[in-house]
Design a protein that fits this description.
By secondary structure, the protein is an alpha/beta fold. The model has no long low-confidence stretch (mean pLDDT 81). Helix content is 65%, strand content 8%.
Length: 544
């Protein structure tokens, strides 16, 4: 089950981490039990006929022991909370490759996006999911251990009281569990609404949309739409708080009944001479501790169930994000590409974007694909990149079905410049190479920039190819124009030297002169490689 999955993963990550959690459980239980026993011990010392010196030394000794245990408990709790952070961080990082390598068509679907929103809750913060389950497990086991000690002490006094208290505790747990299941039903709707809210929260800070928002006075519309989703979120939160209120009310009622029974029995035992004052104070602390532990355990169980549900969603997310699993290899560097009666429509739509479509791209061939908006040009590219999958027909690469080919090997042979590609907020060298600063070939990057016609501009920057693009990581980062971005992307193509290049309307945002210059550079770059140029204008692709 999920609890076993978490604990086993934590054990495999670090035996020491789990051993320290076990030590925390024992010490925490001992610290709280010691705190309960301390007042009774002081009263017993005062009424036992000891000398003042003996009383003082006894109290100092017990205070010292209890204080030492409490200090150790506090240290272990803080220490162990910190040791779970790298473990949880590792799980977050483990999930990222699954997100980035999974089948794109599945990744793009609404179902997957909602599942990712739910699943990442388990690893993004230390107050939810896996890490919080570890915190709660330590508290839960410590409370269980204390509860066993208290039950043993109370049963020595009267076994029936224990049975009644346990019955009340089970009733309280069952009611709270029912309330939790009621809260759980809204999780899907909450996750979908959170996606909408996150989108609108980012809009005011997005420089790409900031111009349109101001120019077309869209502030009012965006505010109204955001308020609509925000009201939904408030409604969901109100429902959650209502359930929490019902749970708290039930817990308070059960606690009142339990305490009335326990304290009534203790007062009767004291007044009837069945116990002395020290025993009365001791069992008063025991009953109070028992009541507190039962309430805490009920709360912890409810929170642990939520953590387990979040972890289940995380595991479901990983199960959905399966990478493309072809294993056949291409024996030659040349690509012979055949669309063999391919049909495709987007999920949830009956419209066929491609219907019984066939096309043969021979090695070294350069084709222009020209058509109106919505004709399926970009869809064809995404099928060719293996982002989407045909509903019918096949895409053959050197005679092999694309679905069977090792994707990393195949995608290393192709390169695409999409019309809306944006550079990453990394350095220029990292954008071109796709590698960290210390790993890429600087000479090769410089050569690629030279061929793309942007090297003069880059050299004028203070840090050259080590200059950041955008302001996200460096306030001195540069903002590139549309033409500069296109030249940067062309430099990326040169750096990777792919055998098949696809240009999906890369010059759509450029003026006619810049467009002519870019296509001239593309033509020189392509050489003998395969190429597919997509454009609205036939005149732009006359060299194909």
């Amino acid at each position: 089950n999920t609890a076993t999955y978490i604990l086993k993963d934590a054990w495999n990550y670090s035996h020491k981490m789990m051993a320290m959690m076990g030590l925390e459980v024992v010490i925490k239980a001992g610290a709280l039990v010691g705190t309960v026993i301390l007042p009774a011990f002081i009263i017993k010392s005062l009424t036992a006929g000891l000398t003042v010196t003996e009383i003082v030394w006894n109290i100092i000794l017990v205070f010292g022991i209890v204080g030492l245990i409490n200090a150790w408990s506090t240290y272990l709790c803080s220490r162990n909370q910190m040791q779970y952070i790298p473990w949880r961080g590792r799980k977050l990082i483990t999930g990222l490759p699954s997100v980035m390598e999974c089948d794109y068509q599945k990744y793009e679907s609404k179902e997957t996006q909602i599942q990712m929103n739910k699943g990442l809750n388990a690893v993004e913060t230390n107050t939810r999911g896996l890490e919080n389950f570890m915190h709660l497990t330590a508290l839960f086991l410590a409370d269980i251990l204390q509860l066993v000690i208290y039950m043993a002490m109370i049963s020595y006094m009267n076994i029936w009281i224990i049975l009644f208290l346990l019955a009340l505790s089970v009733l309280n747990y069952l009611v709270n569990y029912g309330i939790y299941q009621k809260m759980k039903k809204t999780r899907e709707a909450v996750a979908e609404n959170d996606i909408h809210i996150e989108y609108f929260k980012k809009l005011p800070y997005d420089t790409a949309t900031g111009e349109d928002i101001r120019l077309y006075q869209m502030q009012g519309m965006l505010k109204n739409i955001f308020q609509m989703f925000n009201r939904k979120g408030i409604k969901f939160q109100f429902g959650t708080e209502k359930c929490k209120m019902q749970s708290g009310l039930m817990t308070n009622v059960v606690t009142l009944i339990r305490d009335a029974l326990a304290y009534g029995y203790l007062i009767w035992s004291l007044t009837s001479g069945k116990m002395d004052v020290a025993a009365f104070v001791l069992f008063l602390g025991v009953f109070s501790g028992f009541s507190t532990r039962v309430t805490d355990i009920s709360t912890e169980l409810s929170s642990m169930m939520q953590c387990l549900d979040e972890t289940i969603e995380y595991r479901k997310m990983l199960g959905m994000l399966v990478p493309v699993a072809g294993d056949r290899h291409l024996e030659t560097g040349e690509l012979d590409i055949v669309f063999d009666h391919v049909t495709f429509s987007y999920p949830g739509s009956d419209k066929k974007i491609l219907d019984d479509f066939s096309l043969h791209i021979h090695p070294h061939e350069k084709l222009a694909l020209v058509g109106v908006n919505g004709a399926g040009k970009s869809t064809l590219v995404k099928l060719l990149c293996h982002f989407y999958h045909p509903e019918a027909g096949k895409i053959l690469i050197n005679g092999i079905d694309l679905e069977q080919i090792d994707m990393k090997e195949y995608q290393n042979k192709i390169s695409v410049i999409f019309q809306n590609t944006k550079p990453f907020s990394f350095t220029i060298g990292e954008n071109i190479s796709g590698l960290p600063e210390e790993q890429y070939d600087e000479e090769r990057v410089t050569e690629a920039l030279e061929k793309a016609g942007i090297s003069d501009y880059i050299r004028k920057l203070g840090k050259g190819i080590h200059t950041y693009i955008g302001k996200d990581f460096d306030p001195d980062g540069v903002m590139l124009s549309g033409g500069e971005v296109q030249k940067l992307l062309l430099a990326r193509e040169w750096y990777h030297d792919s055998v098949f290049t696809i240009m999906d309307e890369p010059t759509a945002a450029l003026d006619a002169i810049s467009e002519q210059e870019m296509y001239g550079r593309y033509k020189n770059y392509i050489g003998k490689h395969n190429a597919l140029f997509i454009s609205h204008r036939l005149a732009s692709t006359r060299f194909c």
